[in-house]
Amino acid sequence: MSCWVPGCPALSMCRGLTALPITCLERAKDLKTRLGILLHKPELGHRIGTSSKLQLGSRQRDSSREVLEWRESFDQLLKSKSGVTAFHTFLKTEFSEENLDFWLACEDFKKTRSKTKLASKANRIFEEFVQSEAPREVNIDHETREITRKNLSGATSACFNEAQAKTRTLMEKDSYPRFLKSASYQDMTKQATSRGISKRSHT
């Protein structure tokens, strides 16, 4: 756009542009080129969007199947990361999440290979969950508590086995059935079932 008539707005604009530093003009041209490329490639955005939708659909199908599997057995629930998270959230409403936290701490403890770390971890778990009046004391009998205390003197990856088994049984017999009957899990199964029905109707 050019104009040599005195007082023309285009002339003023051109003079203003020439006063700008060269780097600013180069950046503006570069930006214009990039925008042009994006505007002329709408299929790029379509491909990305389609790919994301396919991945999301796959994840939803997997999670729906997982949610329904949780009611098959307590083991099935504990195998699922999202199942453990959902169960933990439920236990918080009953103020008994320390049972699951202890079970998870024991699972992590068993993977410890260093003898030094094994001993320090064992003491930390015992002080937090097992000893009488512990900050997050789990509900186990006195005999199991004493057996676990003695095991600490020669800490091995199996020193919490009995206490962990008792806590697991308690959750399976007591908290797990209530979790399956809870409103939150019922809502999740309804959503999972409806997604399954929707999927079948579209195939």
TrEMBL record:
The keyword Cell cycle does not apply. GO terms for biological process: negative regulation of signal transduction. It is a lipid-anchor. Residues 73-189 form the RGS domain. One of its GO terms (molecular function) is GTPase activator activity. Coiled coil: none annotated. It is found in: Membrane. It comes from the Eukaryota. Keywords: GTPase activation, Lipoprotein, Membrane, Palmitate, Phosphoprotein, Signal transduction inhibitor. Pfam families: RGS. Its main location: membrane. The keyword Signal does not apply. GO terms for cellular component: membrane. Regulates G protein-coupled receptor signaling cascades. Inhibits signal transduction by increasing the GTPase activity of G protein alpha subunits, thereby driving them into their inactive GDP-bound form. Plays an important role in the phototransduction cascade by regulating the lifetime and effective concentration of activated transducin alpha. May regulate extra and intracellular mitogenic signals. This is Regulator of G-protein signaling 16. It comes from Jacana jacana (Wattled jacana).
